[in-house]
Amino acid sequence: MTQPINARIAAPVAPRRSHSFTRHGITVHDDYAWLKDARWQEVLHDPSLLDADIRAYLEAENAYAEGVLGHTAPLQKKLVAEMRGRIKEDDSSVPSPDGPYAYFRKYREGGQHELFCRTPRHGGAETIGLDGDALAKGHDYFKFGGSRHSHDHRLVAWSADTKGSEYFTIRVRDWDSGHDLDDLVEESDGGVVWSRDCKSFFYVKLDDNHRPMQVWRHKLGTQQSDDVLVYEEKDTGWFTHVHESTSGRFCVIAGGDHETSEQRLIDLDAPEAPPRLVAAREDGVQYAIADRGDELFILTNADGAIDFKIVTAPLATPERANWRDLIPHRAGIYVLDHDLYAGHLVRLERANALPSIVIRDLASGEEHAIAFDEGAYSLDAMGSYEFDTTNLRFSYSSMTTPSEVYDYDMVTRARTLRKRQEIPSGHNPADYVTTRIMARADDGAEVPVSLLHRRDFKADGSAPLLLYGYGSYGMAMPASFSANRLSLVDRGFVYAIAHIRGGTDKGWGWYLDGKREKKTNSFDDFAACARALIAANYTSARRIVGHGGSAGGMLMGAVANRSGELFAGIVAEVPFVDVLNTMLDDTLPLTPPEWPEWGNTIASEKDFRTILSYSPYDNVAAKPYPAILAMAGLTDPRVTYWEPAKWIARLRATMTGGGPVLLRTNMGAGHGGASGRFNRLDEVAIVYAFALWAVGLTEKAAA
């Protein structure tokens, strides 16, 4: 049970302003619609333009949250100190070779932001190309978008967002002088692809509704107004991005939504040539290309390959008719990514929520996998600047094992440890246990749950437990290492990750079973995981704190409505809880691209009724709720601030007991929360302090 709050702290009461609308013959009442600023697009660019009434309400909610949780301030301070003590402050990445240099990123001791550096390939003095700490001075918010050095190694194109709204400004820096050129490209998505002659680059410009629809070419030494439009996507439901192909020969224009994709190639030796289509879009067909010589290697779900396959096609004639299977479809073995080198094809696969890396010798066709022994772990190939190499770099971690970076010789199969994550304050993996159980959902589906707890944990049902979930967009939740989690686990918590439907943890079919009309499977899976953990005596009802963010925040809202009696607390970060209204507003940045994921409530009465049946905001009921902490960002273009604001207002006005329900809005940040690696810890500490408070452990945890 949560500890009592100070009765003198009055919760804000948002005024009800009558508002309703009728769609498909169904009338919906939304008395808190006024919390959406009519000028929200302008607020993204300039938060000072926020309506005064809305600002006053958000600030009142912040004051209330501070009043309720203020007594945890010493605990939060202690948590931040612990988490910071686990960070190697002068950390650096393993240098990645490219021609005469090796590039890497690092932090200085006490620094909040990354430094982009390089050394001569075979050793020598390092030089700093970009100093994030220096660039962030004078900004309340600063986040790097991307950086890419030119092929001749003289320049680096870099981008940053200084408002949290994810509009990135691109600049170009001379590496030797350390000065930026006059070039300035604004309102981009942050990515850059250089032409081979290093005289121009490609980028994606965001429109007024924050959608990446246009690809432009910028010539160095000219104004952005002189840039050339290279490609424009006409479907507002599609997003467009650019990246360099595996060989470095092409700029790839990749477009798509959550179900369909299409790609085009620009030869970087001929940057003024028009983009060339690979294969025309077909509803429901996704593909991604890698190139090698005169051949394309294409990862696709074509021909009913639900868990994807890899095909090849001639570069000269890459249309669908010429695709030939190389790695056939195997049901239940999800091919989630592929990478290509001069002599090898690398693919990342996942089966039953466990990943593997498979390497194929392209000359002989022989394959082998890189193997690991732990019961639950995370694995990822890290890519390379260089194409003609036999070295594969990958990372490995588990919930007990800090991240390790390896170089792997794909010919000799020799594995070399290049870096192991250091925990300066100390960490002994043997003190912890990571394991996995299966929860049976109501329809019989077996849902994996990854667990972390101390070795001296006793399964008697008394332990508090944090249950994390997401379950949307086909995103899997890896069982990877997080030093921050130890602050909960060392205080007696069990940390659990629910690999629910809506993610691809068990393949693409697992994702399809948790979207559109099957979305409620995600919510039921999460509740089933909670019940399985209770049945196995890892915890008890009302000793569980649910945690999710963004679409995982929608999960939290739905679970609070449907299974709130299981939880002591719910943490919903930037929660997508006003699903119906957002899917009805086609001016919002993500709405048209999201229709394939959730349904088009404008065009379809069926989709409207489906979303109305579970949308957390629309299903708040007159019943008790667990304590809830919602966290928002004022300039968030993905989950707009008014979604959690409206949700908390309706909860407080409707619920019959339980709580309290709290809203904390970062008035100077967006979807990712605070910028800076240490500032972000302040927000993590608030989440953990709330979790400890929700299960009545504040005083003990602070001791």
Describe the overall structure:
The chain is of the alpha+beta class. The protein is globular, with a radius of gyration of 25 Å. Strand 3 (96-98) and strand 4 (101-106) form a beta hairpin. It is built from 14 helices and 40 strands. The strands form ten sheets. An eight-stranded mixed sheet has the order 31-32-34-33-35-36-38-40, with helices on both faces. The chain has a four-stranded antiparallel sheet with strand order 3-4-5-6. Helix 3 crosses helix 13 (679-694) and helix 7 (520-535) packs across helix 8. The two termini are 19 Å apart.
What labels would you give this structure?
eight-stranded mixed β-sheet, alpha+beta, four-stranded antiparallel β-sheet, 703 residues, globular
Write a short abstract of this structure.
This protein has about 700 residues and is α+β, with helices and mostly antiparallel strands.
Strand order in space, largest sheet:
31-32-34-33-35-36-38-40
> How many individual β-strands?
40
Total helices: the number is 14
Poorly predicted regions are none
How much helicity do the residues have?
10-25%
Q: How is the biggest beta sheet arranged?
A: 8 strands, mixed
Helix-strand blueprint:
Elements lengths: L19 E4 L2 E4 L10 H6 L6 H18 L3 H13 L10 E3 L2 E6 L8 E6 L6 E5 H5 L6 E7 L5 E7 L6 E7 L5 E9 L4 E2 L5 E7 L5 E8 L8 E5 L6 E6 L5 E7 L4 E7 L8 E2 L9 E6 L2 E6 L8 E6 L9 E4 L6 E7 L3 E8 L2 E8 L5 E4 L7 E4 L9 E7 L6 E6 L5 E6 L11 E9 L5 E9 L10 E4 L17 H4 L4 E5 L9 H5 L7 H16 L8 E6 L1 H13 L3 E7 L5 H6 L6 H8 L6 H10 L9 E2 L1 E7 L8 H13 L2 E2 L2 E6 L12 H16 L3 H5 L1
Helix pairs in contact: 3-13, 7-8
